Every structure is written in structure tokens, then in C-alpha cells.
Amino acid sequence: MTGLLTDKVEGHKILNLGRWYGPWFYKHVKTFFAKGISTELIPLRDYYHRHTRSLFWAMEDIIPFGNHPIFRFLLGWLVPPKITFLKLVTSQRLHELQIRTHVFEDFLVPFKELNNTLDIQHDLVGFYPLWLCPCKIFNTPKRGLVNPTTDDELYVDVGIYGMVPEARKNKGKNFDYLTLHSKLEKFIRDIGGFQALYAQTYQSREEFEKMFDHGLYYKTREKYGCESLPIVYDKISKGARQ
Predict the structure, then answer these.
(1) Phi, psi angle pair for 32, to nearest 5°
(2) Amino acid 51: pLDDT
(3) From CA 206, how far away is CA 184, in angstroms rounded?
(4) Residue 127 and residue 158: Cα distance in Å, rounded?
(5) How many alpha carbons lie under 13 Å from residue 123 in its C-beta half-sphere?
(6) pLDDT value for 134
(7) Cα–Cα distances in Å, from 109 out to 77, 193, 217?
(8) Cβ burial 151-182 (10 Å sphere, 16+ → b, else e)
């Protein structure tokens, strides 16, 4: 897909993605494989929120019938449900099952390693569709947690959101999710990539500090007398919190 910002609407169909009864965006995109190339106009606000109602493609696991035309027309205004509400009504057992069977990760990888990353994802996880979003990271004199080792470099955010097909077969029984995450994280470290920290990390503290440059971070903690406060790793690692 390619897009251009425009104020001209003559001669093209306007797709109001934000309407409650409309199809989920990624489902709509799939129709182009059958109907071929065409041009549509999407209002800017709808474009910004094109993945909101379907939570990308994760909503299909939560509400399998959520994209059905009847559901969309009658109850589509309820989607997406607030994440806070979902957490309140999700039992601890179901939450633990989701951890054992799903991958919710964004890995920032150098563009030159994208093909290898996709191969590793296919072999270890095998989930599709994927979220691919290019971004440039600048090499700065003051090195923060995320900084390329050489010059300014193009990276790609590889997002994996969904249930691992191998885990789906037997509802997570005998599925070694810890080894899966460990292999993914090791690969990302080895290629100079980064892990998005909104998700669970299974790295050890030593591995985590190999991925993220903590030099300036520790100097700042020392300068302002913050050594007694929890470090970043303690905040984002379930193992450290326990």
C-alpha cells in the first residue's frame, strides 16, 4: 500500500473506516488480493485509527465473530472494548494461558537483517499477518538506551501479535513458550536489534543490558542520587518483580 495526503476527492471512493458497521481494516485489505489494485480515499482520522477497532488482528482471538456483518451492524459500536474491562473480566487462569500461547512483541531490527528476522519468525513462531513499520534511529553523541552502533541507521519494527500456531493445536499443553521467547530475544540481541518494552521480556538482567546501552542511564542515576530506586529491568521483567 502507498498513501498520499490530499484534499481532492473527485472521482474516487471514500472509505469511512471509522463507522461501527464497517469491516476490520486488515480484512478489508485482504479483499484486494482478489479484486486487484484500486484507489480509495480514507478520512485522516479514520486512517489514524484504522487498526483500532480490530486491535490490528488480535481482536479475532477475543471476539472470533467480531467481523461478521450482523455483529458489526448490531454491536460494532462496542468494539474495541476497553482493555481495562477485558483485564477485569479475564480470569487468572485464562491470563496465564494467554501468556503461554501468545506472542505480543515488537522487535526493532536493522533493515539489513529484516529477511533473516522474517525467516526466524517463520521458523520459531509462524504467525501471520505481521506488522512491519520502517523507522530511522539516529546515532547521537549522548548514547541513550536505544542507539545504533555505527551511523544513522534504518530499522524496521517487526510486530508479532497473536497465538502461536503450534500452541493452538493443543491449547498450550506441552508448548515450551519460554524457550521460544529466549531464542527470539537472543536473535534480536545478536543482530543489534531492540525489544519494545511494553511487552514482557524474558531476558536476564545481563542480557537486557547487552541489548540496551545503560551507560548514560547509570551515570544519571548516580548523579541525582537515585541508586535506591528500582532500575528499568526491575519494572519490566516479571521474573525480577517476583
Answers:
(1) -70, -20
(2) 92
(3) 16
(4) 12
(5) 9
(6) 93
(7) 37, 4, 22
(8) eebebbebbbbbbbebbeeeebeebebeebbe
Cα distances from 33 to residues 26, 37, 38, in angstroms, run 12, 8, 11
Q: How many residues does the chain have?
A: 242
Determine the pLDDT at residue 199: 77
Q: Which residue has the higher pLDDT, 43 or 148?
A: 43
Question: What's the rounded Cα separation, in Å, for the pair 131 and 150?
Answer: 26
What is the pLDDT, as a whole number, of residue 106?
Answer: 95
Q: Give the angle subtended at the CA of 227 by the CAs of 225 and 233, to the nearest 5°.
A: 140
pLDDT digits (tens, 9 = 90+) for 179-192: 999 999 999 999 99
Per the CB < 8 A criterion, the answer to whether 212 and 194 are in contact is: yes
Closest CA to 159 of 190, 134, 189: 134
**Can you give the residue ranges of every domain in the chain?**
13-83, 92-241
Distance of CA 35 to the CA centre of its chain: 29
Copy the grid coordinates of residue 80.
Answer: 474495541
